[in-house]
Amino acid sequence: MAEPYPDIEIYIKAATRDAVVEWLKSHFSVIADEQKILLSRNDESVECLIVPDANDGFTSVWFSPNHTPWATDLECSQSAYQYFQVEIRCSTGSWQDDTPGWVKVDGEGSTEISWES
Q1: Which residues of the chain have pLDDT under 50?
Q2: DSSP H helical ranges for 1-117
Q3: Which burial class, exposed, middle or buried, applies to 27 when counting CB atoms under 10 A from its CB (0-12, 13-18, 19+)?
């Protein structure tokens, strides 16, 4: 298992805020459902920020600190793909690791891309 990232951020194609909240409920207890959502899992709290249409029709979902079931952005993206069945994008590494590239997760698996593709 990979070393957990300090935070997680993924981008879900054409996802509404309400749809993202429903996905979150399958992994967390939702404590507060506001601009920043407070989540709880295994007695640990995590803030989640959902930004619809953050980039090219993708909704950003950011978790901090990373008290999630996923160690990396890619693991989170793969979980989100299983739920949404739409393209998910994430970084190839932690932003602490320099400037990572991008990965697309879809029905064909995980593929490194440039954001424009």
Answers
A1: none
A2: 17-25, 73-84
A3: middle
Beta-ladder partners of 61: 10, 50
Say whether the peptide bond before residue 52 is cis (omega within 30 degrees of 0).
no
Per-residue CA distances from 95 to 15, 44, 56, 68 (Å):
24, 23, 21, 17
> Minimal CA–CA distance to 69: which of 13, 26, 38?
26
Alpha-carbon dihedral sign for residues 91, 64, 97, 53: positive
pTM for the model stands at 0.92
Q: Which two tokens stand for residue 20?
A: 């993202």
